[in-house]
Amino acid sequence: MNLRYQILALAIIPLIVAISAITLLITWQSTRLAQTSIDTFESNLLQAKQDELLNLTNLAISAIDEIYQRAGPDDDAAKEEVRAILTRLDYGQDGYFFVYDYDGNNVVHPRQLYRPGQNWLALVDPDGDHVIANLIQRAKEGGGLHQYKWEKPSAGLMADKLSFAVGLDKWRWMLGTGVYLDDVFAQTAAAKAELRASIGQTFFIVALIAVPAVLIVFATCMLLNARERRMADGKLKQLTQRIVDTQEEERSRLARELHDGISQNLIGVRYAIDLARRKASNDSADAIGAIERGAEALNGAIKEVRRLSHDLRPRVLDDLGLSPALEALCHNFSERTGIATRLECSGFKARPKAEASTALYRVAQEALNNVERHAGARNVSITLASPKGRVQMIIEDDGRGFAEQGGSGGLGLRNMQERMAHFGGLLLIQTSAEGTRLQASLPKSANLPQAPLSEVA
Prior knowledge:
The chain is α+β, with helices and mostly antiparallel strands.
């Protein structure tokens, strides 16, 4: 995976992870809150059913209490009267009272008429619960609730039932009534189904927001990446063309210098040597003068070669450093052009790296070439300084500014700016009709590291 796709992945993956984490957190919190609400709702319904059972049991006891209190343990007439009252005392299709004695014999069951007179102590529901035995046990304990499965009269199917049983100890009877819980469970199941639907809707809404957001971010990154790539390709083409133009310009300059300078001097040397040879062969007295003129032309050619070599790469820059190199550059420039050139570097204490020194030298060289070709200046000054450990070079002239020259700078200025930008520096230009001020600045990182005190000593 190349760098562009790595950056794209680093932008997209955290977004997807964050959206997923937020979605899971919201879903978990919603599920937890909804489940708590459902549990509370179910608990309240069960509590309401329990309260209803207690009220119904109290109602039944109130209906038979007068008869029960005046009857004896073996008063069959009173028992028959109570049996009749409890048989008639029902409520709805599935609400009724039932009575079993403590031995498990059924006494009253208005919905299942085959049960009275039979012993059901060993009756077990589908879950293995001994229903009658447990109800009798609750009655003996003073009354209590018991949940089990029992046939629902209105549906003819087994359903969960919650019953409350109390004891009529004088007759050794267990009196009970119950309510079926299928409606409670149905309401709870409906609430859970609604919860699942709500969670699904939440997922859908989050996906509806998150997926387009991720796609938008992805598309934006791709567009920006494509745009940056096109810009980079364009800049690369411009840079390549600039390099080619610079090379061609430098070749043209060297060809011009070789043709107009060294070539002419060497031709003069050849003519002087030919003249001296002819005079020497004729024993002319002027042969020595011809040889001396040839030697002078040869010295001129040597000087021209040195000047070209110095322009290409000054030895003094490598041997002595930036300040002496700039001093030699100013001297040669002034001598060649007649423009007064001054170098001020008394306060310069920085030690720039070799590459940084070369960049500053080339900036100064290009600036002086611009002054010579375009500015029409009479005076030029170069100031080297090191404010706060940085490297600063200021070049000022009193010639025409860029506006007067009909432009804002060309290839040379772009080259100077790129040389400074390579080291994290800046090139600031102020120009007007009174002259131009060029300031090249490099950060501390362009300097050589300071030597330890022990090495200096």
